[in-house]
Amino acid sequence: MSRDVPEGSKKLTYKGYLFHVFPEVYEPSDDTFLMGGCLEVKEGSRVLDLGTGCGILGILAAERAERVIGIDLNPHAVRCAKANAKTNGVEGKMDLVLGDLFQPLKPDEKFDLILFNPPYLPTPEREGKRSWLEKAWSGGPSGRRVIDRFLFEAPRHLKEGGIILLLQSSLSSAKKTLRVLEKAGLKPKVVNKIIFPFETIFLLRATKTAERTKEAYRRQKNPTLFA
User: Which CATH number fits domain 30-218: 3.10.410.10, 3.30.430.20, 3.40.50.300, 3.40.50.150?
Assistant: First the structure.
């Protein structure tokens, strides 16, 4: 095993790419593959992959993108994504950064495509720190702790005509997410879903259009955005 890959790592192949998943990094699952199967990247675009994990979606995007920035709060994930970018020969097209959501970016930095598979499962509050793996799916009591922070900032980092691809569980109110995206000046819709006995996972696609942006600007002082 390569010195870049620690003991206990798992290995998977997807769409002709090889990925190692380090022990403390979220393993790609049905939600990841739901987005991966619908991923369309324009040639020469700039892509932001939030919560990059092992880097699987960012690496897929790098095939056609001019530049991909992958950000993760988990230092093990950043190291894992860097190793996988190197393995798949796209390290020259990717910047993989440790940080919390949009925090590492410049205030005016914008992208053609933003990808996010957030922590969306409702989880009770508890004392003590959660493990890195738990942080990958723990969305707080409502499941929306990270999602709402993302929705508040994402539109300002999206180019005109740009697209957000966001995964969402029925357990954390996909309807509310669609409503917030509309109020933020985007045109959202459900493009695919997976139905389980206990929840449905939705893939949401939101597009930034000039008409919707102007409408949102007129309502920018609306205090009920997250009502």
Answer: 3.40.50.150
